[in-house]
Design a protein that fits this description.
With about 300 residues, the protein is of the alpha/beta class. It has helices spanning about 1-20, 25-30, 55-65, 80-90, 110-125, 145-160, 180-185, 200-205, 210-220, 245-265, 295-310, and strands at about 40-50, 70-75, 95-100, 130-135, 165-170, 195, 220-225, 270-275. The protein is globular.
Length: about 300
């Protein structure tokens, strides 16, 4: 049994290494057609602390060492010490920050109030102005009007503070599917998006080839990307470097390419979070729960691949 398991792991590692040197690596690293950038275009890569086993200072040091310009983390609501430690680490390592913001509870009014409190705290902090705020907005079972209240409040706060506030395409939230998001986009001209399209791949059990018009509409509103690669049966491929995920990689790159092209043409800032997650987003072997790939290494790979592609 142990010998078989060792052989399996050895075979898997060998196949992965071969995949890195195969056609997929060449495809994903290839240059895209040149798009001239207007003055103002800026590309910032953000690191996630999701799954990082260490202190805030250690996380910031690791992100800086890899070449990230900033980090994206949840706002440490109600924890003054954690806030002070975070901003001290950001200053020490000269990193920018984007914050995640969400509400809690199944009651729409209480949920919205907790969301407002977190967003207000983020935007009024005296330590460091965030590059953006990314929102896990509302719930998939709230009504349209209940969810619209989140958009209305964030639009108001963006106009008051000048800080960009985005709403993420995320399962379980307001924008959980492409067709639902289309309604919000069409009726709310100031709605700006964080694109984590891997969620929609799962919801619609496809790479969305039959919803091109809707996807193109969503892409026109995207200002921030979560660059995780999903597929029809899950929100995260086990390793984007593996050749079996070629079609999924190509689809995600094509979506992201359109966003970057628009940003370059308009001369606007673009932020990208490399957000491959830890177990159980990252598949594991049964019983041992050993991850089948290295989460941190995958995220750094994605940063380097996309920086080469979009710089």
């Amino acid at each position: 049994m142990n010998q078989n398991r060792r052989n399996f792991l050895k075979t898997t590692a060998t196949a992965t290494a071969a995949g890195l040197l195969g056609p997929l690596g060449e495809i994903t690293a290839a240059e895209i057609p040149f798009v001239p950038s207007k003055a103002g275009y800026e590309l910032l890569f953000m690191a996630t602390d999701w799954g990082f086993a260490g202190t805030t200072d250690e996380f910031c040091a690791a992100a800086k060492k890899e070449g990230y310009e900033g980090i994206e983390v949840w706002w440490p609501a109600g924890n003054t010490e954690a806030q002070q430690n975070l901003f001290a680490a950001l200053k020490k390592h000269n990193l920018q920050v984007g914050f995640l913001c969400g509400g809690g509870g199944s009651d729409p009014v209480a949920h919205l109030n907790s969301f407002k409190a977190s967003l207000d705290a983020i935007l009024s902090n005296k330590f460091q102005k965030p590059v953006y705020v990314n929102c896990h907005s509302g719930k998939d079972f709230f009504t349209y009007d209940q969810n619209k209240s989140f958009i209305d409040y964030t639009v108001k706060k963006t106009k008051e503070t000048g800080v960009s506030v985005y709403h993420e395409t995320h399962r379980g939230r307001m924008l959980y599917s492409a067709i639902v998001a289309k309604q919000f986009i069409e009726k709310n001209p100031d709605l700006r998006l964080t694109l984590d399209i891997s969620h929609w791949c799962v919801v619609h059990e496809s790479l969305l080839g039959d919803q091109k018009e809707t996807i193109d509409l969503a892409l026109s509103r995207v200002d921030h990307i979560h660059s995780r690669v999903g597929h029809s049966q899950g929100p995260q491929v086990n390793d984007p470097r593996a050749p079996e995920w070629e079609q999924a990689i190509k689809s995600h790159l094509a979506w992201w390419d359109k966003v970057i092209e628009r940003k370059k043409q308009k001369g606007e800032r673009m932020t990208i979070l490399t957000e491959f997650g830890p177990p159980d987003y990252l598949p594991t072997l049964p019983y041992t729960r050993q991850p089948v790939a290295d989460q941190w290494g995958i995220n750094v790979h994605m940063m380097n691949l996309l920086r080469k592609r979009y710089q």
